[in-house]
From TrEMBL:
Residues 23-185 form the N-acetyltransferase domain. The gene is LOC101514209. It comes from the Eukaryota. Pfam families: Acetyltransf_3. It comes from Cicer arietinum (Chickpea). One of its GO terms (molecular function) is acyltransferase activity, transferring groups other than amino-acyl groups. This is Uncharacterized protein LOC101514209.
Length: 198
């Protein structure tokens, strides 16, 4: 934990102080279902995510099982993932995935993804966690040379998180992803293992 600043940002939610040293990362479990349902059923949270807003507990169970079982039925393989916790409640999730899971020697990059319950937005939590995860990833996954993140051009908050965490904006991939009925322009960000801020 490199910094323990306190952030108070208005986001249309009640103001409260969160000491960032209370934020922890740990594996996600099925017992986190009720906490996970809080944010996976929230349309604001799901807006830029690849998954649809959850409507049933089965959706939540499937979501957790996919994460625990390394997204077995999806193209990407989860390399590393953790629940973002406040007082041991899973208030979000962060992961690193590989696009070429079967060829570690050729793929020295990983894609970062993260999500946080809307009640906790605007308090510096995502920035704090992303900074830590970048450090941990480059040390635990020692073959990694690059961590990238693709963000919808309209997802201003997430772009700001990456900039503040030391990622470089590489450019816009036009109509790169078809998601939720629309082709979307995506901003590519990356951080390399030898970048000065890392
Ligand atoms: C994106 C997300 C993770 C940001 O989390 P967060 O904890 O609120 O981010 P932070 O508090 O660390 O904010 C970092 C910066 O972004 C700014 N920011 C956050 N949300 C913003 C928004 N909606 N619009 C404009 N700026 C925003 C903050 O003000 C802060 O900048 P500042 O310090 O210069 O003021 C969160 O909104 C989220 O989970 N969204 C839904 C899922 C998602 O979009 N995931 C990312 C997919 S790529």
């Amino acid at each position: 934990m490199e910094e323990t600043s306190i952030s108070l940002k208005p986001c249309g939610i009640e103001e409260s102080i969160i000491d960032l040293s209370q934020i922890t990362l740990r594996p996600l479990h099925l017992s986190d279902l009720d906490d996970v349902m809080v944010w996976t059923t929230d349309e604001k949270v799901a807006k830029f995510c690849s998954w649809e807003t959850h409507t049933t507990k089965d959706d939540g169970i499937n979501y957790i099982e996919r994460k625990i079982n390394n997204n077995k039925n999806e193209n990407k393989k989860v390399l590393w993932c953790k629940a973002i916790c406040l007082n041991d409640h899973a208030i979000g999730f962060i992961s690193l995935s590989s696009r070429s899971p079967h060829d570690k020697s050729r793929n020295k990059s990983a894609e970062l993804g993260y999500v946080l319950g809307s009640k906790y937005w605007g308090r510096g939590i995502a920035t704090y966690v992303v900074k830590q995860v970048v450090k941990v990833a480059f040390s635990e996954l020692s073959y990694l040379e690059r961590i990238e993140a693709m963000v919808d051009v309209e997802n201003v908050g997430s772009q700001r998180v990456l900039e503040k965490a030391g990622f470089q904006k590489e450019g816009v991939l036009r109509k790169y992803v078809f998601l939720k009925g629309k082709s979307r322009d995506m901003v590519m960000f990356s951080v390399l293992v030898n970048d000065p801020k890392v």
